[in-house]
Every structure is written in structure tokens, then in C-alpha cells.
Amino acid sequence: MNKIGFNVLAWSAVISDDLFPIIERLKTIGYDGVEYFVGSPDEPAYKRVGQHTKDIGLGVTCVSVVGKDENPISDSAAVRAKALDRLKWEIDRTHDLGSKILCGPIHSAHAVFASRAPLDDEYAWGAEVLHAAGEYAAQADVVLGLEALNRFETYLCNTMEQLLRLIRATDHPNVRAMFDTHHANVEEKSYAKALQTIAPVLVHVHISENDRGTPGDGMVLWDDAFSALAQIDYRGWLTIEAFSRNDPDFANAIGVWREYSPPWDIAENGLTFIQKMCQKHGVGA
Q1: Would you say 270 and 215 are in contact if contact means Cβ atoms under 8 Å apart?
Q2: What are the residue boundaries of the Xylose isomerase-like TIM barrel domain, all occurrences included (predicted)?
Q3: pLDDT band at residue 253, thresholds of 50, 70 and 90?
Q4: What integer is the mean pLDDT of 51-75?
């Protein structure tokens, strides 16, 4: 049986005690876990939030990004060193939260472009940094789940084929892949082919509608997606990632300029939708 989670980015990118009522309500709705964004600087808050989440019986997963000054694929060795330091910090905070997975587009700086296709050198530089990060993550029993994003957010890894290339080059058991239905809706030819490609290294899945609103209310080919997940016998987390403007700083940083669906509507209807689709297609059976 797959566990179902909800990413609290629908409310806030900040780790603080203000999240307690949100995660408690997610527990009441019926979620198995929550996903936190690793980024805010208050380090003690990560342990407090992680402990509270554990105390109420929820699991934890984490997601993060890296910026232009800490870019693993920079041609500057100094910047790549900063990238590794940043990834180590994110792994530490993931451990503080009690999570065993840190996912996201941490292979390259978010929304930083080179006005050309990715270079072989960039894959090599990224693999070197990520291998070292994988070594560090292994000590904390954390797995890194690299995420391919659409062409408007990154240029290194848009597809599962590109992502698999990077993971193979990295060559570390603690560096694996995640799959996001929103980005795949933009970049892939079919859910079946994409998921079959990445299946050997897949550790995490984001369930996200094309407009980042309630799963099932948009244009994603959900029957294709869940059928493909069943075909590869995926048993990991199915975590809803939806966005809003509740946290303006975060919303502005990722280009969220309007509201999609009320967060609690997404949480309540999204859980029902995932359960229905899993039963329909035999995901986790």
C-alpha cells in the first residue's frame, strides 16, 4: 500500500511551529505524512516540527532547491563547493525533520539558464557534486530524489531520460529519482514510457495537476499516470504538491501569480481522488 502525503508549501515554505495546526488537520483528514520545504534558516525549528510530526503519527518527506550561488553545474569550482555545502546543510535539516528522503531539483540552480542546451561538462560537474552529497546523505540514512522540471524552470533535466543520465553518471545508491506529474505533463510523450524509463531508480512521486490545483480537476491524463505506476509496481509515497499565494515570497520566487484552488479543498478532494485512482488501477496492490 502506497503512503499518501501532502506538501505544506500550499501554506508556507517556512519551517515553524505555525505549521502545527496544519499538520494536525492533515492527520485528521487521513494523510499518512507531510512534506516540508527545506530552506528557512531557523535550524532548531526543524527538530521541533519533526518531533511534533512524529508525535502525532505522521511520516515526513522533504523537498528543496539550490540557487545560482550554489549551483552544482557551475563552471566555477568555488560555486560547486558552495553547492555541496548547501546540499549538506539541506541533508542535515532533512535528518532533523525525521525524513529519509530529500527530493527536488537539487541537481542545478532553479530558474537559472545558460541560453543553450546543457553541456556534457555540466552533467559531469553535477554528478561529481551529487556523488559527494550522496556520500554525506548515506551517513544520515537519507536518499536524494532528483527531480526533472519543465523547460521554464531548468535546462539540465527536463525529461526522465535526461534525469536517468545524470543519476547513472552520479553512480551512488543514495542518489535516485522522483517523478512529478505536472512537469511530465509538459515534457514527456507518455506517462508509461517516462515511468518505465525511470522505474529502476524511482523513490518518490509528486501528484500535481497541470495548473497546480486539485488533482483530478485539470488536464493531466490521470488514468495513464496511475496505470503506469501500477505497471512498474511503484510502492513509494504519492505526495500532493500544490501551490497558492499564502506565502507571497515563495509564490513570487516560483511564478505563482494567482490562486488555483483553496488549499484545504485540494487536501480533502485530492486525498479522495488518489485513493480512488489507486483502487481503480491497482497501485500498491
Answers
A1: yes
A2: 24-253
A3: confident
A4: 98
